[in-house]
Amino acid sequence: MKRTAENQRKVVAVRVNPQIEQRLRLLAELTGRRQSFFLQQMIEGGIGAMEDVWLSPDVLSRVRSGTMPSRQQASDAISDLFASSMPNEANR
């Protein structure tokens, strides 16, 4: 699959205690897989449970239906709103 802007994966950094890192490293070494593979599996397998616990039903339904804007989209809309109403330097 050719990578496009829509399907590129993002990097997320996380700090874990040394015992967890050691277990993850050992799992990867013994199976011949990368640590990132197992982290991806854990995230994909557990994010639904985290959403169920931490999000309100209203927000959860919008997230899962795809109608919840990302924080970046929301901040872009706000900055565009203010940028379009601000006088430019030439008109001052």
UniProtKB/TrEMBL annotation:
<feature type="region of interest" description="Disordered">
    <location>
        <begin position="65"/>
        <end position="92"/>
    </location>
</feature>
<protein>
    <recommendedName>
        <fullName>RHH-type rel operon transcriptional repressor/antitoxin RelB</fullName>
    </recommendedName>
</protein>
<feature type="compositionally biased region" description="Polar residues">
    <location>
        <begin position="67"/>
        <end position="76"/>
    </location>
</feature>
